[in-house]
Amino acid sequence: MTPRQLAHNEIVVDGKSVHCGANVRTWHETGLWFMGLKPRAQTQLCVLHWTGAENPPEAVYRNMSASGLSVHFVIDQAGTVFQMADANACCAHAKGVNDRAVGVEIINRGDAVGVPDKGVQRDTVIETIHGRQVRYAAFKSAQVVAAVELVTALCEAYGLPLRVPTERGDVLADALPKKLLEAFCGVIGHLHARSGKRDPGVRLLRLVQAHGARGAGPEVA
């Protein structure tokens, strides 16, 4: 596949182009490519993360590479999706589920709330996660729309249900027990895979769940 064969609304899944409603830039265009990755044997999950800083995609790529980490997609503050590996590659982004998960990092300072970072102003969200009240920086509307469009395209490509873990009708705000995590298919937050993680918060996951239930366009709160 050459760069000329890819439009800005296509992602790469197992070497094939797949339509995505978000604005996409693949490694063919940017050169940001995690090389030497083996393909996964199965795909059951899409895992959403926040990066923990307001660094641009190029810096996210460099920092992850230097740490021995990798991820399939990075969404910048403007809602552009940067694809850095074939969605079928086995990236290192969420310990314990890498061998069956597609990873999506969304640029956001996360729980490092406070003064604007690198000129980016964000509202503060307060939620209870893992039984504790936490404060974190909200995602931009464009990022929310891009994330929902991306996981929708990925779930369709892999035949996964567009759903998130829930409890009593709301998004589960805790880690999934091991057996339930192993059996779950759909979209999870990093917080569902590890009790020490809080990304990407619960608000974004509620919007993914609502989109899956309605089968309509993403709605931004």
Molecular structure report:
- By secondary structure, the chain is of the alpha/beta class.
- The chain has helices at residues 27-30, 57-66, 141-158, 178-183, 190-193, 203-214; strands spanning 10-13, 16-19, 24-26, 45-50, 73-75, 81-83, 101-106, 124-129, 132-137, 166-167, 170-171, 186-189.
- It has a single domain, classed as 3-Layer(aba) Sandwich (Lysozyme-like), CATH 3.40.80.10.
- It contains six helices and twelve strands.
- The strands form four sheets. It has a six-stranded mixed β-sheet. A two-stranded antiparallel sheet has the order 1-2.
- A hairpin with a 2-residue loop joins strand 8 and strand 9.
- The longest helix has 18 residues, at 141-158.
- The radius of gyration is 16 Å and the shape is globular.
List keywords for this structure.
221 residues, 24% helix, two-stranded antiparallel ribbon, Lysozyme-like, alpha/beta, single chain, six-stranded mixed beta sheet, disordered C terminus
- Spatial ordering of strands, largest sheet: 3-6-5-7-4-12
CATH topology: Lysozyme-like
Number of separate strands:
12
Quick check: average pLDDT? 92
- H and E string: EEEHEHEEEEEHEEHEHH
Task: Calculate Rg over CA atoms.
Answer: 16 Å
Distance between the termini: 38 Å
- Which residues form runs of ≥5 with pLDDT under 50? 216-221
Number of domains: 1
How many helices? The count is 6
**CATH hierarchy, class:** Alpha Beta
SSE-based structural type:
alpha/beta
For this structure, the quaternary state is single chain
Strand percent estimate: 15-25%
* Portion of residues within helices: 10-25%
The CATH level-2 architecture is identified as 3-Layer(aba) Sandwich
Main sheet overview: 6 strands, mixed
